[in-house]
Amino acid sequence: MKLKNVAAVGSLALVTALALSACASGSGSSETPAASATPTTAAVDSTLTGTITAGGSSAQANAQAAWTSAFTAQAKGVTINYDKSQGSGGGVTNWLAGSYDFAGSDSPLKEDQAATAQTLCGPGGGINLPIYLDGVAVIYNLPGVKELNLSSATIAKIFSLQITTWNDPAIAAENPDATLPATQITTVTRSDGSGTTTNFTNYLSQTQPSIWTNPPSNAWPIAGSSAQQGGSGVVNTVKAGEGTIGYADHSAIGELSSANIQVGTGTDFVPFSAEGASNAFTEAAATVDTGVEGDLAQKIDYTKITDADAYPIPLISYAILCTTFPDEAQSTLTKAYISFIASEVGQEVAAKNAGSAPIPADMLSQIATSLELVK
């Protein structure tokens, strides 16, 4: 696969600037890594001190662990506490309550949340900065089936409970070489407010509106699934069951199998790859005009993802923060950390340790410009 418009993080200059130990493989892990990836010459102010408190997106968990380790290896006086147990919904709620310096979220602020941020942040409001790029994996546990192709129509029918057994003709037609059992399908979904759910339901709503008639939401809309707390809850339940299927950020799925997803209406079924996520970002993501200076909230048009080199369900995750902090020292500290995350070095740390895709170079440049507004 070819990588389109992505920062040349593999260049010799960057390699010599990094001392990366692969504390997690590119295939991802369901466990938070004991990250030891430390860039030797990244632009981090070693004199910084203080504590950053944040939380939210469980999709960012492995990346946040690696970023924290790499950043604090240079700024030894800094402590970073990122609570992944909150999920995107809890992260945004706690940030709006003033408990977090920034929120991690797999979806940007909603209109009402942006209005509340005006009270928290003042006239500058809150900004959504895309710092993490990966994909929503459709994971399954079906003994004897090592590879599975699924179209958006079939996925929509499975998760809306219209297809209930694994040997259904629709699944069989997309997998003519597989021996599919008559096992009952158990769908596993998120019980908490989840940005991953927002991304997944947005994908279903856009690509199969006649089948998936529910609007995109961070709350799973259909009763009858096995509802679990957090991405890890979904992954562990799929892993423990038989005939189970769920969705999760790809970095968290460990050794679980994930389906190849049909691109558009063609004959190509594409497995997740970092390159595929980056190519999908290039094809289908566009910055939304929210009226807030520096805001880089993205809208993905999943119907535009037609390239066989693109993964059809990309996931963009954000750092959400105020442009005006009540405390200047906290602003300086948080801004330094987000700047590190949104650097080529920071993106390479995440790629090495969470299997994520680097944010494209032009977007990193825009994030740097937005961070100049943070005071």
From TrEMBL:
Belongs to the PstS family. GO terms for molecular function: phosphate ion binding. Keywords: Phosphate transport, Signal, Transport. This is Phosphate-binding protein. InterPro entries: ABC_phos-bd_PstS, PBP_domain, Phosphate-bind_PstS. Gene3D superfamilies: Periplasmic binding protein-like II. PANTHER family: PHOSPHATE-BINDING PROTEIN PSTS (PTHR42996). Residues 45-344 form the PBP domain. It comes from the Bacteria. Phosphate binds at residues 57-59, 88, 106, 194-196. GO terms for biological process: phosphate ion transmembrane transport. Residues 1-24 form the signal peptide. One of its GO terms (cellular component) is ATP-binding cassette (ABC) transporter complex. Pfam families: PBP_like_2.
